[in-house]
Design brief:
The complex is a heterotrimer of chains A (about 475), B (about 325) and C (about 375).
Chain A (H helix, E strand, L loop, with lengths): L2 E5 L9 E7 L6 E2 L4 E6 L4 E5 L4 E6 L6 E3 L3 E6 L6 H6 L51 H10 L17 H10 L16 E3 L2 E3 L2 E5 H4 L9 H12 L25 H16 L2 E9 L1 H16 L7 H14 L5 E4 L4 E5 L4 E6 L4 E2 L2 E2 L7 H17 L12 E5 L18 E15 L2 E15 L5 H16 L2 H5 L3
Parallel strand pairs in A: 15-18, 18-19
Antiparallel strand pairs in A: 1-8, 2-4, 2-7, 3-6, 4-5, 6-8, 9-10, 11-14, 12-20, 13-14, 15-16, 15-17, 19-20
Helix pairs in contact in A: 2-3, 8-9, 8-10
Chain B lengths: L2 E3 H15 L3 E5 L15 H5 L4 E3 L4 H14 L2 E5 L10 H8 L2 H4 L9 E6 L15 H4 L5 E3 L4 H13 L4 E6 L7 E3 L13 E4 L4 E5 L3 H14 L4 E5 L2 E3 L3 H11 L2 E8 L4 H13 L8 E5 L9 H4 L3 H12 L2
Chain C lengths: L22 E2 L18 H26 L13 H9 L6 E3 L5 H6 L4 H9 L31 H15 L6 E6 L6 H13 L3 E7 L2 E2 L2 E2 L12 H5 L3 E5 L3 H16 L5 E6 L21 H6 L2 H13 L3 H24 L18 H12 L7
Parallel strand pairs in C: 1-7, 2-3, 3-4, 4-8, 7-8
Antiparallel strand pairs in C: 5-6
Helix pairs in contact in C: 1-2, 1-10, 1-11, 2-8, 4-11, 5-6
Classes of the chains: A alpha+beta (about 475), B alpha/beta (about 325), C alpha/beta (about 375).
Chain lengths: ~475, ~325, ~375
């Protein structure tokens, strides 16, 4: 009696068991090699399993309809013959011939993998323009990476000053000192309590995952952006050295260390330009009606102790336009890849100081009256001039207005106040010929230059927003209609 | 406390242990009557006799093979291989038998012995009297590998090795056999295996070294200090099993690592140390770990001081690593 | 020089040499023993040896079958060499040591290794004294002073010299015996071991099983010497040739060598003329290099039928008794195989034990990493 236990083989493809459909042999039956024994159904197919050797069936295991796990015994054979060596000699398997010791198999799984043709190269999906960082693959030592991680900063947006374009620990610490809070992750806004609207509490910001905002086929990258992105991906930027004039030639240069506010502005502007895909939309605005309105309101404002400039009107017009075009009041959360649309309106007013540009913010401009805003602006202006702007008046803006009005200028390309997606630049009001009722008359015209982040704001949306503002400014009575 | 050089310290250790433990037996070429070509076993033949200090035929394979048989029977052999360069005829017995005996006999048999052998260059020995083959033994599971840098450690580590239950390859840095001198505790003095020693504490950079190159590393560290680089120098003492805790604690403090060894660079112990540090202290690294080693060439005769990783070659690596 | 079966020179393998005058023989054609060299075994002792021979032979056959059935991975047996192996082992005293090659499991069993442990070693299961770490037949049995088997050829020869040497240094009455095939006489360890043994006059006995083949390389290709025994002359080690298939000749000769060693007269090299009836191992098919016809004369000299003849003639062994012994032995084997088949595999942790006396940190790390990860699927 030479017992041989035949196990249900592993046919691969993740099959773990089979169901016995039909037995074709019975115990006691003598079978020849390859004789069909049993039909087994897996979730792939029904297969007929044949006898691996000739012999007598001693036992069949498993009833029809029963499940048999792979590698469990299915059939027990008696292969017959004695255990003497001659029988063993006859049963020498072919595989064992060419080795002194051990088990060199003829077949091993996976041996054909080396011969398969490589899969076709996957074409990279064109997504929206990749953010153009200082270096999409920043260089830093492990210790610096850990520091950045702990402080919550993305190394890609930290300006590298180390050798070979490396971000150093000092770079990270320096970045942390002038950036608060870590800007890449956006919170839910300055106001803690949700706005009550018709009795329903609404969240103040709406987070829209980036994917959902994409429109069908992604637009191809404008060539310029492509080049920039690939150029920066090609090699880490070497820090540029401005060669000094030979010593002894007199003081032909002055070296001012980059520090303080200038450093902050330096980094902020760089960051904004290196992330957003800026485009600028310029349009004229007939402000005749606005001018007249302000003139009419000025006395009442003075009586309330407020100097009424045009700026509060601009703020209100912007807020009204932002309410109709909520995407313009959003920002991009890099850490979660979401566009965060805010329903609170913190309008920043870019202001020049001796040391540089700051942007004090009028918080919740939608809930303040024109007069309140005028008061705020006056206060902030005073603080700005005296250099005493309070920290709580800075930061967390949702939209910025920048004025280039004093010096004039035809139009400009204002730089977004990171991480906002839109900025309104206002130019000087000039008298210009305008057409009204078919007649050429002298009107007051103001040019507006708006910049947008094309990653999030498409051209026509930016334009529509611009026209919205212009509409309110040209016809300020509409503000009264929508006054909340 | 007596002052000794390394030869004397090892001699002292052998004498002490042979007195203490009658199972200890020394065998090798020229170890008996002549007391060893470096005189390390001088006087032992006269004191303990030809049954315990044995001059063997010229056969490293025979020395180690028979020593294994002796160990199986219950003696504690301390065979000497005259130069580490000549250990290779015994490599089969060491790798196939010595290293595996305990494992393959389920712990019932152990082939415990200590192979003493001078290693390292800097003695104008050329290709065949200068090698440092430690990596070729570390890489064989089942062997402990030791290398002292000073006389007190030589005695202490040798006694510990003889008493350790596992086979030990005891590499003696012959370049400093006589040049290294110091106080050696009398009597029973052991130094635990598997424990490194911080020879020079420092804050800025970790140097790991052993054997004769410890002194070159210390010299380089001194010069580095003049440039404001404060190095911590670690003497491994036991090459395997490695005292990884001491190394990692140091690198976590300094963030920078330089390993110095005479043996050729590729697949040397330095590579293993760097890998382990990467595994265990990666986020603490301020600079890539660096190895200052012998070259991947046979050990040259005339240009041996260019080959060896001496202080003049260690220093630039320290500076570069510190300033990375 | 060709290696066809009909032409030979150098160390012999032909049958004629077993009749050479220097080759020690004890059992005569008629089954009786030469009284001048009769080792004087009792009936019980001879029967016990016969049973041991049957056990060894039936084990060989069974293990080969198990390997063909895929139940064990490998077997390297001693078919045809039982007299050399058992006879030499029988000639030792309990305190003596054996440093085996790998074919001599019969000697371990004779000297008390439990059959179950040997079969467990064949299965590499949790009951294996080697804890499944070695290939089958790489076993050991410390209570019998049967040292651990390794695969490299000849390394045990120097170990035997070392053991004997240590015993001599300690002044213990212990003899060390090494087995090796004639192929091993080409190894460095043969030279080193015999050389040191001669120089230091250690109490060792070296049994060279000249079984005709080192895998496919015939004996005459191992040396240009006429015999293997004569190599002893070069080392100053007395040597002798014996009919390896004559159990009593082997016992007689080995006893003499053991006694000589125990008297401090140094080592002896014994060349036992025998024949490897099977392939080198289950991984070798000798039909690739050896015609079946060559086996015939050696089959007639098969040690087990020869021993049975002696038992029949001199100790009244009957067919019935013979059959009963065979059945007993087969039953023992079957029980051990069944039990081994049901014993668990060695534990995962055991992979890391015994590399060193205590588990060092780097092995603890590696063990933990292995435990956490996925298990390998079946072979």
């Amino acid at each position: 009696m030479k017992i041989y236990e035949f196990k249900l083989p592993d046919i691969g493809e993740g099959v773990t068991e089979g169901e016995i459909v039909k037995w074709l042999v019975t115990p006691g039956e003598v079978v020849r090699e390859d004789q069909p024994m049993v039909e087994v159904m897996t979730d792939k197919a029904t297969v007929t399993i044949t006898a691996p050797k000739a012999g007598t069936i001693v036992e069949t295991r498993g009833a029809v309809g029963g499940l048999v796990p792979v590698h469990s015994v299915l059939v027990v054979f008696d292969l017959g013959g004695s255990d003497a060596a001659p029988a063993a000699q006859g049963a020498r398997p072919k595989e064992s011939a060419a080795t002194a010791v051990g088990d060199i198999k003829e077949h091993l799984p996976g041996m054909d993998l080396a011969h398969t043709t490589p899969p076709p190269a996957v074409k990279p999906q064109l997504t929206a323009a990749a953010p153009v960082y200082f270096n999409p693959k920043p260089l830093a030592t492990p210790a610096t990476r850990r520091l950045a991680r702990e402080l919550g900063f993305d190394l890609r947006v930290v300006s590298p000053t180390g050798p070979n374009g490396r971000v150093t620990r000092d770079d990270v610490r320096g970045f942390a000192a002038v950036t608060s809070p870590p800007p890449v992750t956006l919170g839910t806004g300055a106001v803690a309590a949700p706005v009550v609207n018709n009795g329903n509490a609404e969240p103040l910001s709406l987070r829209v995952p980036l994917a959902e905002t994409r429109i069908e086929a992604p637009l191809p990258l404008p060539p310029a952006v492509d080049r920039v992105a690939s150029a920066s991906a090609a090699a880490p930027p070497q820090p540029v050295r401005i060669a000094s004039v030979a010593p002894g030639a007199g003081a032909l240069e002055e070296r001012i260390p980059l520090r303080g506010m200038r450093k902050r502005i330096f980094e902020g502007m760089a960051r904004s330009k290196h992330t957003a895909a800026h485009f600028t939309f310029v349009e004229e605005c007939d402000v005749t009606a606005l001018k007249a309105l302000r003139a009419r309101l000025k006395p009442a404002a003075e009586k309330a102790g407020v100097k009424l400039t045009f700026l509060p009107f601009f703020v209100k017009a912007c807020v009204a336009a932002l309410k109709r075009h909520p995407t313009l009041n959003s920002a991009f959360d890099e850490s979660t890849q979401e566009i965060v649309q805010r329903r609170y309106y913190n309008i920043g007013i870019a202001s020049a100081t001796e040391s540089g540009l700051i942007v004090p913010v009028i918080r919740d401009a939608d809930r303040k009256s024109l007069l309140d805003i005028a008061r705020e602006i006056a206060r902030l202006s005073e603080d700005t001039k005296s250099g005493k702007v309070k920290p709580e008046d800075l930061g967390n803006g949702t939209f910025t207005i920048t004025s280039l009005g004093q010096q004039g200028g035809l139009f400009a390309t204002p730089i977004l106040n990171f991480p906002e997606v839109a900025i309104l630049g206002i130019h000087q009001m000039k008298e210009k010929p305008v057409v009204r009722d078919g007649q050429i008359v002298i009107g007051d015209v103001m040019l507006l230059s708006l910049s947008f982040d094309h990653r999030i704001i498409d051209g026509h949306i930016g334009a529509a927003f611009a026209y919205e503002i212009i509409g309110y400014l040209q016809d300020p009575d509409r503000l009264f209609l929508e006054m909340g | 406390m007596p002052q000794m050089n390394m030869v004397q310290a090892i001699n002292d250790a052998l004498r002490f242990e042979m007195k203490r433990d009658s199972r200890v037996v020394i065998l090798g070429e020229d170890v008996g009557k002549v007391g060893g070509v470096f005189r390390v076993t001088a006087g032992l033949y006269d004191e303990f006799g030809e049954d315990r200090v044995i001059d063997t035929p010229l056969s490293e394979g025979g020395i180690i093979g028979t020593a294994i048989g002796m160990a199986l029977y219950g003696l504690v052999p301390v065979p000497e291989i005259q130069f580490a360069d000549f250990i290779f005829p015994a490599y089969d017995q060491i790798v196939s038998e010595l290293a595996k005996y305990r494992y393959r006999s389920g712990g019932e048999y152990s082939a415990k012995l200590v192979i003493r052998t001078p290693m390292g260059g800097g003695i104008r020995g050329g290709l065949y009297h200068s090698q440092s083959p430690e990596a070729q033994f570390i890489h064989v599971a089942g062997l402990k590998v030791v290398c002292p840098s000073n006389p007190a450690d030589a005695k202490g580590l040798l006694l510990a090795s003889i008493r350790d239950p596992d086979p030990v390859i005891f590499f003696e840095p012959k370049r400093i056999y006589r040049a290294s001198r110091g106080e050696v505790p009398e009597g029973d003095h052991t130094v635990p295996l598997g424990k490194a020693r911080v020879v020079r504490p420092g804050q800025s950079l970790t140097i790991v070294a052993w054997g004769a190159m410890l002194y070159e590393s210390l010299a380089a560290a001194q010069q580095a200090a003049e440039q404001g680089i404060d190095c911590e120098v670690i003497d491994l003492r036991t090459l395997w099993p490695l005292d990884i805790e001491t190394i990692v604690a140091s690198v976590k403090k300094t963030g920078r690592l330089v390993v110095v060894h005479e043996a050729p660079k590729s697949c040397g112990l330095g590579g293993e140390i760097v890998s382990l540090v990467n595994e265990k202290a990666f986020l603490h690294l301020e600079a890539p770990p660096v190895r200052v080693t012998g070259f991947d060439t046979p050990f040259p005769y005339t240009l041996e001081n260019e080959y060896l990783p001496l202080a003049h070659r260690i220093l630039p690596a320290l500076v570069e690593t510190a300033r990375y | 020089m060709t290696t066809t079966p009909t032409e030979r020179s150098g160390a012999h393998r032909s049958l004629a040499d077993t009749d050479a005058p220097d080759v020690i023989k004890v059992q005569r054609e008629d089954g009786t023993l030469d009284p001048a060299r009769d080792p004087g075994l009792s009936s019980a002792e001879v029967r016990a040896l016969y049973r041991a021979g049957l056990l060894t032979r039936r084990l060989d056959e069974r293990l080969i079958t198990l390997q063909r059935q895929g139940r064990i991975g490998f077997h390297i047996g001693s078919l045809g060499e039982e007299a050399t192996i058992l006879g030499a082992a029988f000639a030792l005293r309990p305190q003596d040591w054996i440093l085996p090659c790998y074919r001599e499991f019969g000697a371990a069993l004779l000297r008390g290794m439990p059959l179950q442990r040997y079969v467990d070693n064949m299965f590499g299961n949790a009951g294996d004294p080697a804890k499944g770490r070695q290939m089958p037949d790489h076993c050991f049995w410390k209570p019998a002073h049967y040292a651990s088997v390794s695969s490299p050829i000849g390394t045990q020869i120097t170990h035997a010299t070392g053991v004997a040497w240590a015993a001599k240094i300690k002044k213990d009455d212990v003899v060390a015996l090494a087995y090796f095939g004639e192929g091993a006489t080409s190894s460095a360890d043969f030279h080193n071991g015999i050389n040191f043994a001669g120089v230091f006059k250690v109490p060792a006995v070296f049994i060279c099983r000249n079984n005709g083949w080192a895998i496919s390389v015939p004996a005459e290709r191992q040396t240009a010497s006429e015999t293997f025994a004569e190599k002893g002359i070069a080392y100053g080690v007395p040597s002798v040739r014996v009919d390896g298939n004559d159990l009593f000749a082997v016992i007689h000769t080995t006893r003499a060598a053991v006694a000589s060693a125990a008297r401090g007269e140094g080592p002896t090299l014994i060349e036992a003329l025998t024949y490897r009836l099977e392939g080198h191992s289950t991984s070798d098919d000798p039909r690739a290099y050896r015609p079946d016809a060559e086996l015939e004369p050696w089959k007639r000299l098969d040690p087990l039928p020869r021993l049975r003849r002696h038992l029949e003639v001199c100790h009244g062994l009957t067919d019935a008794e013979d059959q009963a012994l065979l059945a007993e032995v087969d039953a023992e084997i079957r029980a051990a195989v069944e039990a081994a088949g049901e014993t668990a595999l060695p534990s995962l942790d055991s992979l890391f034990d015994d590399v060193f006396a205590e588990l060092p940190w780097h092995l603890a790390d590696q063990r933990d990493a292995l435990r956490k990860g996925p298990r390998a699927r079946g072979h």
